[in-house]
Design a protein that fits this description.
heterodimer, A: 133 residues, alpha+beta, five-stranded antiparallel β-sheet, 8 strands, 41% strand, globular, B: 464 residues, tRNA-splicing ligase RtcB, eight-stranded mixed β-sheet, six-stranded mixed β-sheet, 17 helices, 18 strands, 35% helix, 25% strand
Chain lengths: 133, 464
């Protein structure tokens, strides 16, 4: 499983999984896009590159997902694939996706929050995020 | 009715929640915990307060009100919310139901086509850097100066649609980039434009002052500062986190991150938040202007006035009397509406005799209310009141329980016509996912925080 949604009164809470932190972050991108439209239908027509550094893993996740919302608001870009490298809380990502207006949209995202944010690194990695809608 | 949450642990003051028994049963334990968390912040004055529509939020609960001493207190982005100056504007018209009943569908469609709503839609106003900074400094005044609306609109906005200490330079380039193409756009989620009818007048005198008559057509706009405000909140949440790790490490949740008043970052956030608030007032104002254009086209005789425009996600520096002493306090209202009483210097001249209009929208398809602020609200909760129905059901559960097509049909049976940019939006915002607005209003009135002036019923809804 790449990601799943959990119950939350006002907004969206998701968990994304991966064999390592990088893959969990990549799947967090898909979980985020899937709030806006069916991520599996989004073509990989446009490429975007992002580089971020933050002080902790949590703030890196916050800043990274916030970057996706920024791209949605400013360029109407939604990502359906992410290739990520993370080293010492520095992240480089290559995102592939398309203009959101080419799809039937099902929701908007206002912001990333720290509410219930969790990064669990065992044999498998799980990241949990609540998005403000 | 008030419930007191007794001091425990780090709480500096008691919690006070304005709920009746029926509503109290529906409040999550986490929301009560968030009231306790508010009460533990430095320099909090009076009580940590929550309104009758409270539910769990980020940092503060939704419905949370807290005032902080200007010297020993703090300011927190989580006490304002991501959607800075999310709020409500109500326009009155000279039309009655009989005048428009045959053109309701055209009206809703025209509004939907004229005002960008939902995701990925740009405004037709493309602001230059300089113009955007002017919007951030001047709020509604900028729009009036540029031919949108009139002076009377300015006088009927909370704070005249402009917080004067706003500093555009403290708003990040990212936040500006998000807002640049969004002035005059509705957004998605719970934001809406509703065409409503005045269903019942409860307070004749205040209704007359506000220009409300039975069966009159009014229009309500619920929206905020769009991506610009969301980014300001995120930016400062992160800045505070990086600047004050020792504060963050002691907090029960990171979204409660605060900056002590008197620090540079507190001042920067306050002036950036004020700029975002000005953007939000201007945003609702531009939409009101577009609404006037749509009405004018279909009903050339129509005239529309701003009854009032209130913020319900904001922090403001206000003077309040505490234990007989006048003090300047940073009042945070997160999902709470200001409700100042008659003769308060902050309210429009023509409403001085009755008090500030308090606009409380219901959920989609249910009643909304116009109330008026009271002296009791000043004494009990820094002149504040509830802001809406308040969610009780998650979006996931809502989608399972309500099919958008069925919700729309059910509303059409009640003669309420809905047009939405997304079907999902309709099911997620179905009336059943919210608390009963009538109960929320009852609790507000029982606590004497505001008195009902009029009840409004929707018949046309535009959603993002």
């Amino acid at each position: 499983m790449r990601f799943k949604y959990l119950d939350h009164t006002a907004d969206v809470k998701f968990q994304a999984y991966g064999k390592d932190l990088t893959e969990a972050f990549e799947n967090a991108v898909l979980a985020t896009t899937n709030v806006i439209t069916d991520v599996d239908k989004v073509k990989k027509e446009i490429i975007k590159e992002i580089a971020i550094s933050s002080k902790t893993k949590e703030s890196l996740l916050f800043d990274f997902l916030n970057e996706l919302i920024f791209l949605l608001d400013t360029e109407h870009f939604i990502a359906s694939e992410a290739k990520i490298k993370i080293k010492n809380n520095e992240l480089k990502a290559v995102l592939k996706g398309d203009n959101c207006n080419n799809y039937k949209m099902t929701g908007d995202i206002k912001a990333v929050t720290y509410n219930f944010m969790e990064i669990k690194e065992d044999e498998e990695v799980m990241v949990q995020v609540v998005l403000d809608l | 009715m008030e419930h007191i949450i007794k001091k425990e642990g780090d709480m500096k003051v008691e919690g006070k929640i304005f709920l009746n028994e029926k509503l109290l049963k529906k409040v999550e334990d986490d929301a009560i915990q968030q009231v306790k968390n508010m009460a533990s912040l430095p320099g909090i004055v009076g009580n940590a307060i929550a309104m009758s529509d409270m539910h769990v939020g980020y940092g503060f609960p939704i419905g949370g009100v807290a005032a902080f001493d200007e010297k020993t207190g703090c300011i927190t982005p989580g006490g304002v919310g991501f959607d800075i100056n999310c709020g409500v504007r109500l326009l009155t018209s000279n039309l009655f139901y009989e005048d428009i009943k045959l053109k309701i569908k055209n009206l809703v469609s025209d509004i939907f086509n004229k005002i960008p709503c939902g995701v990925g839609r740009n405004s037709d106003i493309n602001l230059t850097d300089e113009q955007l900074d002017q919007v951030l400094s001047e709020g509604v005044s900028w729009a009036v100066r540029n031919g949108y609306g009139n002076e009377d609109d300015i006088l009927h906005c909370e704070s005249n649609g402009q917080i004067k200490n706003a500093k555009p330079s403290n708003v990040s380039p990212k936040a500006k980039a998000r807002g640049r193409k969004q002035l005059g756009t509705l957004g998605a989620g719970n934001h809406f434009i509703e065409i409503q009818i005045v269903d019942e007048i409860v307070d004749e005198k205040a209704a007359k002052m506000f220009g409300l008559k039975k069966d009159q057509i009014v229009v309500m706009i619920h929206s905020g500062s769009r991506g610009l405000g969301h980014q300001v909140c995120s930016d400062y949440l992160r800045k505070i986190e990086d600047e004050f790790p020792e504060i963050i490490s002691k907090l029960p949740e990171k979204d409660l991150a605060y900056a002590p008043l008197g620090t540079k970052i507190a001042e920067d956030y306050f002036t950036a938040m004020s700029a975002a608030a000005n953007f939000a007032w201007c945003n609702r104002h531009i939409m009101a202007h577009r609404l006037r254009e749509v009405f004018k086209k279909l009903f050339p005789e129509s005239e529309m006035k701003t009854l009032y425009d209130v913020a319900h996600n904001i922090a403001k520096l206000e003077e309040h009397e505490v234990d007989g002493e006048k003090r300047n306090l940073y009042v945070h209202r997160k999902g709470a509406t200001r409700a100042f009483p008659k003769n308060h210097p902050e309210i429009p001249e023509d409403y001085k005799e009755v008090g500030q209009p308090v606009l409380i929208p219901g959920s989609m398809g249910t009643a909304s209310y116009v109330l008026v602020g009271t002296n009791e609200a000043m004494k009990k909760c820094f002149g504040s009141s509830a802001h809406g129905a308040g969610r009780v059901m998650s979006r996931t559960a809502a989608k399972k329980q309500f099919k958008a097509e069925e919700v729309t049909k059910e509303l059409e049976k009640q003669n309420i016509f809905v047009k939405s940019a997304s079907w999902k939006g309709v099911s997620e915002e179905a009336p059943g996912v919210y608390k009963d607005i009538d109960e929320v209003i009852k609790a507000v009135v029982e606590a004497k925080l505001a008195n009902v002036v009029a009840k409004l019923k929707p018949f046309g809804v535009v959603k993002g």
